[in-house]
Amino acid sequence: MRIGIVGFGLRASLWKQVHKPGQGSAVVMVCDVSERGRADAAAKIPGAVITSDLNELLAAGLDAVLVLTPDNRHAEVAVQTLKAGIPTFCEKPLDVTLEAADAILSTAFETGTRLYVGHNMRHMPVVVQMRELIQSGTIGEVKAVWCRHFVGNGGDYYFKDWHAERANTTSLLLQKGAHDIDVIHWLAGGYTKRVSAIGDLAVYGDVTSRRDNTDRRMGDWFSLENWPPAEQTDLNPIIDVEDISMMQMELDNGALASYQQCHFTPDYWRNYTVIGTKGRIENFGDGPGDVIKVWNTRSQNGYVAPDMEVEIRDGDGGHGGADPLLIAEFLRFARDGGATETSPIAARASVAAGVLATQSLRSDGGALTVPELPAELVAYFNAGQPAR
Description:
This protein is of the alpha/beta class. The chain is 33% helix and 22% strand. Helix 10 crosses helix 13. The chain starts with a strand and ends in a 6-residue tail after the last helix.
């Protein structure tokens, strides 16, 4: 398969999973509007055609394309690749507005071109194993999901570049939270229908050390010595996104969920608690060797030992082995079609929840209702995007 990449930046590391000449796929073209991105691509993928002209890529007869641009340009590119009939991998989130996300889905539906969204956490061992426990009936019917996301590297990852600006992300509750919202939906078996939220720019907005970092990359400034958060240096000149957010969700199957995100914690991991009619599960750590604990026995005491502990599996490649599995699934889907663990409908649902939650927290914190997609689009994508 001849693969193209649009945008050679933060997620460009996925090229390693795609470019395997002699094993079924190779990156033959990279398009990036920045000179730095083109230089990086040329150095890492010798022999690939490097261009700044998207039209050149659209006309190259590619078998598939990965859209890895900044989030607020996903629809701008993906709509064109889908119209060109190129099976398209769109990195999560679909985009940073509901209108843009819906434009991608509508274009895929109208053209019949295959669309895949890069929600790699659906392949992460901690999430997969928790879902396996739920699907096997271990805790009964899911009634609640709580997620706490301690973003210990928040100052370095999100407040020194374009992520810190609403114009580029809408909010970190959407941009960063799209993963967790999707996982909450997947574990609970439903999508958000009403959402409310509160949030604040509690720490980084008061940091006066600012710098335009477009001449640098994260590797140039990242350090565990950048601590405590209020003493960070060289933050983005514009910071108008929240560094702490909390949202509550009512799902369409009756389950309730909450998501908390903080960008100035000392530790960096996700904690999911899922409560069902017969017990609950909770992960302690989210990487290989950490554990998922299961409680099924009632106790009148305080904290008690779990009834079961499940060790989180390891995997080869980024995100606990999720990235290689993600790309392998996309390439198979682009070539042959069929069912996938990821879902464009689910991807849209996570954007919708994040967008509406942002609107809520920036107003009075009241509950807002998520707009529904047309039934024919939902049916099409839920059926695996069959040929029409």
